[in-house]
Amino acid sequence: MNKQNINVAAWVSLTTTEGPGSRFAMWLQGCPFRCKGCCNQNMLEMREAHVMSIDQAFNLILKEKNTIEGVTFLGGEPMVQAKGLALLAKEIQNIGLSVMVFSGYKYEFLKKGKLPGVLNFLESTDILVDGLYRQDLPETSRRWIGSRNQKLYFLTKRYNEKILQPKKTKVSGAANEHQREMEIRFSSSNDKIVINGWPLSSGFQDPLIEHLHKEGIYLQRKK
Asked: What pTM was computed for the model?
C-alpha cells in the first residue's frame, strides 16, 4: 500500500482529446505559473481539492484499463507533485498503459532534477509537452498542443511524430488538415458545461452558445 498523496483538481475517465488514443485525463491542483488566457483558472491556486492516495488514483485508472490506451496528466502543474505522480506513473506503465504529461516547465530545467521526484517522473513518462501556454501563439495544426512555443518530447520508443498527424475529415467537401478537437460534457448533477481538449479564447463563449441554440439547447444561469 502506498501512502503518498496527490492533490487532484478533476479527472475524466475517457477522453480522445488529451493525447493519443482513448485516455484517462487527470488535472492536478496548483500551479506556480499564471499564463495569460489559461483555461483552467480554478486549478491554479495551491489549495486542497480532491486529495487522494496513489492507490486510490490508480484504482480509478485501473477500472478503465480495458477501454483506454493511457493516462494524461495536466494541470495546474503536474511537476509540482512529481514525487507522488512518479509512483503513479510507474504503476500505470506496469499495466501496459502509456503516460503523457503537460508541463509549463521546460524540459531542460526538469532534467536538472531540482524539483522533488521529477527525474523519477520523467523516467515513467512516454510523452512530455513542455513550455508555458502563450495566448498570442495559438497552435492550429499540432494535435493536443496549446501554443506554438510548446515542444513535444518522446521519452520512450512507444510513440513517434506520426501521432501528431491531424485526423483528415471532410468539411464542405474539402479535407480539413488543421482540425482541432474538443469535448463538451453536460453535467446534470450541477448544471455545468465542461470543455476540454482546446484552450479557449475569451471570445469563444458566445459562438458556442449560438451553436447550441441552433441545436435546440438553451442554457440558464442559476440565480
From this structure: 0.81
